[in-house]
């Protein structure tokens, strides 16, 4: 019987690793699920045939390996208009004040693949502020940022995103803001013009 790989790192060792990564690199994973982190770290140890000591040495001395570590252990959960109540409240309570600003700047820290930043862009477009807005998305995972820059998403996800869009009280159709191409949805060029994505490793 194959040994359970999660036995290779204890929860105490995991806690020490989390604190160590925070101290050395400034990345705080204390809010992450311990079970998920344990699985992901153990998988890396197994895949690279490393001890915990070897892992720490590579994380200090090999920037490329540290980037791979970030890619492997980060969890990227996002969707367009993920919290419809938030967007409804934002539209009703915050947007009316934006007219007093010459420029609107939005920073989405931990933007993942960009769906929420494009949700903000759609909101600003609908409210007439897009032409004087700048949207900035950052993440520690360079792979998800590449997808955010491409702004092409699985068309099958758009049905759920459309439900969120309508639940937030937005008019018309979410399909007005993307072009369907086979099994993909490409965000409109107008929305892509006003954003910037950057990795913060």
UniProtKB/TrEMBL annotation:
Alphabetically ordered keywords of this record: Methyltransferase, Transferase
UniProt KW Iron keyword: no
GO molecular function: protein-glutamate O-methyltransferase activity
Record has Methyltransferase as a keyword: yes
EC number in record: 2.1.1.80
InterPro entries: Bact_Chemotaxis_MeTrfase, CheR_C, CheR_MeTrfase, CheR_N, SAM-dependent_MTases_sf
Top-rank EC class of the record's enzyme: transferase
Domain of life: Bacteria
Listed SUPFAM superfamilies: Chemotaxis receptor methyltransferase CheR, N-terminal domain (SSF47757), S-adenosyl-L-methionine-dependent methyltransferases (SSF53335)
PANTHER family: CHEMOTAXIS PROTEIN, CHEMOTAXIS PROTEIN METHYLTRANSFERASE
Name assigned to this protein: Chemotaxis protein methyltransferase CheR
Species the sequence originates in: Arcticibacter svalbardensis MN12-7
Higher taxonomy: Bacteria, Pseudomonadati, Bacteroidota, Sphingobacteriia, Sphingobacteriales
């Amino acid at each position: 019987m194959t040994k359970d790989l999660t036995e290779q790192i204890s929860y105490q060792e995991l806690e020490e690793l989390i604190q160590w990564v925070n101290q050395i690199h400034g990345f705080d994973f204390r809010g992450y699920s311990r079970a998920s982190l344990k699985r992901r770290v153990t998988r890396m140890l197994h895949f690279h045939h490393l001890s915990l000591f070897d892992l720490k040495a590579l994380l200090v001395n090999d920037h490329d390996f540290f980037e791979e570590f970030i890619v492997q252990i980060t969890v990227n959960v996002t969707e367009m208009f993920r919290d419809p109540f938030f967007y409804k409240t934002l539209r009703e309570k915050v947007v009316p004040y934006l007219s007093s600003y010459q420029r609107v700047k939005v920073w989405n820290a931990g933007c993942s693949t960009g769906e929420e930043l494009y949700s903000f862009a759609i909101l600003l477009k609908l409210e007439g502020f897009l032409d004087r807005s700048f949207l900035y998305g950052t993440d520690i995972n360079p792979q998800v940022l590449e997808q955010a820059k491409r702004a092409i998403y699985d068309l099958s996800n758009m049905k759920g995103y459309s439900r969120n869009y309508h639940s937030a009280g937005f008019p018309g159709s979410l399909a007005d803001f993307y072009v369907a191409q086979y099994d993909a949805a490409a965000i409109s060029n107008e929305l892509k013009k006003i954003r910037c994505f950057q990795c913060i490793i």
